[in-house]
TrEMBL record:
A single GO molecular function term of this UniProt record: metal ion binding
PROSITE patterns registered for this protein in UniProt: 4FE4S_FER_1, 4FE4S_FER_2
Catalytic activity, as annotated: (R)-lactate + A = pyruvate + AH2; glycolate + A = glyoxylate + AH2
Cofactor binding notes: Binds 2 [4Fe-4S] clusters.
Any one Pfam family match given in the protein's UniProt record, by short name: CCG
Domain 4Fe-4S ferredoxin-type: 1-29, 50-81
Lineage summary: Bacteria, Bacillati, Actinomycetota, Actinomycetes, Streptosporangiales
Name of the protein this chain belongs to: Glycolate oxidase iron-sulfur subunit
CC cofactor: [4Fe-4S] cluster
Alphabetical keyword list: 4Fe-4S, Electron transport, Iron, Iron-sulfur, Metal-binding, Repeat, Transport
EC numbers for this chain: 1.1.99.14
Top EC group: oxidoreductase
Recorded superkingdom: Bacteria
Record Gene3D superfamilies: Alpha-helical ferredoxin, Divalent-metal-dependent TIM barrel enzymes
Length: 400
């Protein structure tokens, strides 16, 4: 924990109304400034107690406080450093260690994730039983999306018409295995806008889940492999369609101590920079756009997705109330902190439902699973799509 970064906090309280856990519980130690106070105590000699670790674990890492802070406190760096300390110094109980070991030996590895696909149809029915075994296992089962149809991605998707750019594309772990249709739509959209899309084989996790959970060694190992993969591909820009992945990849320089040698841009960020050339066909839809925290707060990408959606004829964009408050997904948070995540998910589902929109658009697979599960619990139903899928339907003139 960096004492200089800690001292940047002047304890003004601007972060309090933006912090999801403070909004839920109103506890000072479950606010950003309260956690910074605990970090300061540790730097000054206080060991990591179970209570202290609990307050750090309860943080979603949503970075809403970074957006709100007038003093420029790097809470994002502080919480990552702190979680690494917690993982080194705090002794978790055996059941908790076992569940965390399972998650981090499974989710960052696409081939292992693939083994879950056949059982995804049963997951919702098994959730109550698994909940009794361990709340985190029940949460995992309750979040499982319908088993998707497998889609193999080619190594290169050629530009339609005149080539305007050459980009690499991250397929990801959760996105690639649970939402392969999003990757397919992303490649088509880029190609229709004049890009050669290079999709290197053998991709794995970018390290986002690990770095956000304090598993620094695993995060660096996965990050180095991702950097090698795209360096070999010879691209100078990598387009990412998952907010958490893009956020972590943009911080590779800090994680690895050297710049990766390519730019990382979110899909909406890249398309807004490139500018549209392909014709948009009408999509008569009412759409609610969900701001993924690691896109809006961590990357500062808010206007670009809305600009792209508003560029589609016939589409009506509606804003979600309290959009800046996290949905409770936060990488692995909804697995390790299922009770708090459920409360936040239910709040977000009510906000989405209040828009009356036909379609929810999300730019992060974790958010998609979290909000769909929450709406299902509340007896509501709404179709969900990624920004790429909406653009793809409009560009190809097909229904969504």
């Amino acid at each position: 924990m960096d004492p200089e970064l800690i001292n940047d906090c002047v304890h003004c309280g601007f972060c309090l109304p933006t912090c999801p856990t403070y909004v839920l519980w109103g506890e000072e130690m479950d606010s950003p400034r309260g956690r910074i106070h605990l970090m300061d105590q540790h730097v000054k000699g206080t060991p990591v107690t179970p209570e202290m670790a609990g307050h750090f674990d309860a943080c979603l890492g949503c970075m809403a406080c970074v957006t709100a802070c007038p003093s420029g406190v790097r809470y994002d760096r502080l919480i990552e450093q702190t979680r690494a300390v917690v993982e080194r110094e705090h002794e978790r109980d055996p059941r908790e260690r076992a569940v965390r070991g399972l998650v981090f030996s499974l989710f960052p590895y696409p081939r292992r994730l693939r083994l879950l696909r056949p059982g995804m149809r049963l997951a919702e029915r098994l959730a109550p039983f698994l909940e009794r075994v361990h709340p985190s296992l029940g949460a995992m089962a309750g979040l499982a999306p319908p088993a998707p149809r497998r889609q193999r991605m080619p190594r290169v998707v050629r530009a339609r018409g005149a080539r305007r750019a050459v980009v690499g594309m991250l397929t990801g772990c959760v996105q690639g295995e649970f939402f392969p249709q999003v990757n397919a739509a992303t490649a088509r959209v880029l190609a229709l806008e004049g890009c050669d899309v290079v999709i290197p084989p053998g991709q794995g996790c970018c390290g986002a889940l690990s770095v956000h959970s304090g598993r620094a060694d695993q995060a660096r190992r996965l990050a180095r492999r991702t950097v090698r993969t795209f360096r070999r591909a010879g691209v100078d820009t990598v387009v990412v369609n998952a907010a958490g992945c893009g956020s972590s990849m943009k911080e590779y320089g800090e994680l690895l101590g050297e710049e990766p040698g390519f730019r990382v841009l979110d899909l909406s960020e890249f398309l807004a920079e490139l500018g549209p050339v392909a014709e948009r066909h009408p999509l008569p839809l009412t759409v609610a756009y969900h701001d993924a925290c690691h896109l809006a707060h961590a990357q500062g990408v808010r206007a670009q997705p809305r600009e792209l959606l508003r560029g589609i004829p016939g589409l009506e964009l509606r804003e979600v109330p309290d959009a800046a408050i996290c949905c409770g997904s936060a990488g692995t948070y909804n697995i390790f902190q299922p009770e708090a995540a459920r409360e936040l998910g239910d709040r977000k589902a009510r906000s989405v439902g209040s828009t009356g929109a036909e379609l929810l658009v999300s730019a992060n697979p974790g958010c998609t699973m979290q909000i769909v599960a929450a709406m299902r619990r509340g007896g509501a139903d709404i179709r969900v799509a990624h920004t790429a899928e909406v653009l793809d339907a409009s560009l190809r003139g097909v229904s969504l």
